User: Fold this.
Amino acid sequence: MSVIECPGCGEDEDLSGDRQGDPGSETITVTCGACGLVWDRDLTPRCPTCRSDDVRTALRSIVDKSRGTQLSIQSMQVVHLCRVCDAEQLAVWNRSNTPLAPTELPFDPD
Ligand SMILES: [Zn+2]
Ligand SMILES: [Zn+2]
Assistant:
């Protein structure tokens, strides 16, 4: 059994897990008591594009557009980046080690 560690703050003790789903496809929802991050721990993370299991865990910001017009970063989600399909994002993640920008922006980047 591998050690679980909060991808947000690195906490590895003050964590609580909630196991859900059927055996074989179950997920564990982990809550960090130190920083409050909640994420699904995928037991067998795979790239959705090429099905490779050579993926890295990273964080992505989620922007809540529903509250007013101000762009506010509300929370983070754990994503799995493929070395091949997500090479660009993986490079950004490795370089900055801060949460990746949200995929959906409330404005056109162009
Ligand atoms: Zn944490
Ligand atoms: Zn891939």
Notes: The longest helix spans residues 87-96. The beta strands are 15-20, 27-32, 38-42, 55-64, 72-82.
